[in-house]
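check this one:
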Amino acid sequence: MRRGWLVLALVLFMVGFLPRLSLAQESMDSIWVNITGAEEGKDEEGKLQVVLSWKVFKKAYNKRRMTYGNWEPVTAPKELGLTFRPEVAVDSLFSSIASSAEVQELSYTFTGLDFGTHYYWRVDLASPDMPHKWDFAEGVIYKHTAEVSKKRGIISGYLHFVGQGGLAFMIPMHILLLFGLVTMLLIWRRLWLANIFPPNKPSLMYRLLPVDRTGKTEMSSEKGNVFLREVAKYWTKAMEAMSIGPEHFSSPEEFIKADRQTQEEMEKKIWIEKGLPNVEKAIEICKNGVAGIKLPKRPLEYPTVRVLLAALENHRSNKNNFWASQEMDRAAENTVLKEVDELKGWETTALWAVGSIEPMMGLFGTVVGIRSSFGKIQETIQVNPNAQLTVIVPQLAGGIHVALITTILGLTFGIPMMLAHYYYRGKVDWIFGKWEEIVTDILNQA
């Protein structure tokens, strides 16, 4: 009986003591370590330096009332014997700590860190062992102020912009651009109007500048192309000699009564006296040029002259026969098609190819870059399952920003090439139409 009372008394004592023990553990003052800032800079070795600062607040416990007061700042943590442990890690779980220390001050300078790395910060209470809470701070991807705000020139700024897109795509895209520019220069020089039509002036500036189109290409104008006017003058006289009329006979009645043999004899006479000499004169101008007009190169090196010469030689071969006009037209048309193909050359096709391939290469680079960006996000989540959107979104946005650089450059390079292709193709079509106009105007004199 007495033993039972002792057990009961012991149980009651323990029941009354444990709440007191728990209350004693909870009745200690609380400490709150609050991170207030992180200032970046460069250390002596050029690495990232971050000065992490914090404040300390204390919540006093009233043992009499068994309540806590308000948070009050602690200005002298050393007097309370507080020691802090600032830590920096590359993941939010702090499984990979880059640097840590134990200090009694309210700031600590981390050195030797890497620029461009996403860091996480926290300051824990190292001692004494008492109730406390600490702040967790997610850092930014630090880039030194001097590097971000550094002023770049046009060339260095462009190289910096291009370098973000990756050399694997930038190098072939710029090689293709250089090829396109050389191609554009070649066809631009070949399609000078003064290189197609014999110019009135031999000077380089006259041939180079897109001025005086009338003086380079027009045949009927008084201010037009002298070479074309001279050829047209003699060839038109030869074409007029291809048909006989009453003016070639002594009277209209004689013209009416003339038989076929008489007409043929008259046609031959007119060809010998008027047609052939004018054709020969026009051919001579095509081969040797106009007297007093100095050309930069031989007349037969101009495509327009070759077109005229093909029709003139065909005229000389077919004389005043009724089919001569059709044969001249056929000869001129065949020569025109040949010359047009030579004017287009491989350059117009090359410009089209460059203008088409550049945007495709840019798009390919963008797709590869976006895939790489998502791959980095996947790796981040594997390393740090608690990664927040403030980490994932900048990685995704940064990756897409870099990836889109290839598309921007692809379009920037490709669009001018396509515009140049359509411009020069249109110019060749215009030259083709001008040749047809010249030959048709002369052949209509028959």
About this structure: The first strand starts at residue 30 and ends at 42. The chain has 14 helices and nine strands.
